[in-house]
User: Fold this.
Amino acid sequence: MVKVNRVVLVGTGFVGSSYAFALLNQGITEELVLVDLNEAKAEGDAMDLNHGLPFAPSSTKIWYGSYADCDQADLVVITAGANQKPGETRLDLVEKNTTIFKGIVEQIMASGFDGIFLVATNPVDILTYAVWKFSGLPKERVIGSGTILDTARFRFLLGEYYDVDTRNVHAYIIGEHGDTELPVWSHADIAGMKISEWTNKHETNQEDLDQIFINVRDAAYHIIERKGATYYGIAMGLVRLTKAILRNENSVLTVSAYLDGEYGHNDVYIGVPAVVNRSGIREVVELDLNKKEKEKFTHSVHVLKETMDPVLSKF
Assistant:
């Protein structure tokens, strides 16, 4: 038998179904299993996606299944959980989603799963830590979507501002995927030129750049106000991560990774650049932050730990 890649998606809500659709369109995995508490929804999505196979770039076997299907999975992607409501922060979701995740992870591990977890549910940094604790897997094989979407928003808005293709903008958002995240202006560049050089050359100003970051940080709130949830952007980010993992790309992506001394912090999952490959997180990329960035990053770590510790101590 030829070994094929199997991805199990847990949660077929807005994010999960968007991820499945994007995954099919890019032809990244040979098998895709959909698992949801609402079995009819998962079955319906599997049927709908299969009907698009004649137009897909490659063949993908898609079916709705159960946690037992995780036994042969290379990657389990979790998008299940309570959604962020208007006016609610990602951190407000922590206790109810941690409870949900404990049950999910226990059932997945009972199947004999020994692959990689990719977590997207909010608050993603805390829930990624919870999955690591509940699963007992090595920290390298438990990954959160982190600030991959925030970084994409940052690159898009900077590209729009300077009228440059977003793919040629290199800039990171790090920290909590939420209100305490921060832009790494000290390492932001376009085509090798620092953002400060572009600002001087094009007679733009720092106030505009500060507003761009605010728009990045608050993007989810604005989208939720308008359409109730965000899902297309994060789905594309999850597909990008899936591709990096299954194709062993060694790509640098801003994911929620476990810090074990990097950036001067320990025992926390938080958004940082990391090299991602078939083994999971190969290494955390430790940027040389300036003093202000270090202070903001430390604040972000403290907010996550203060929120996480009282909840996880109950489990």
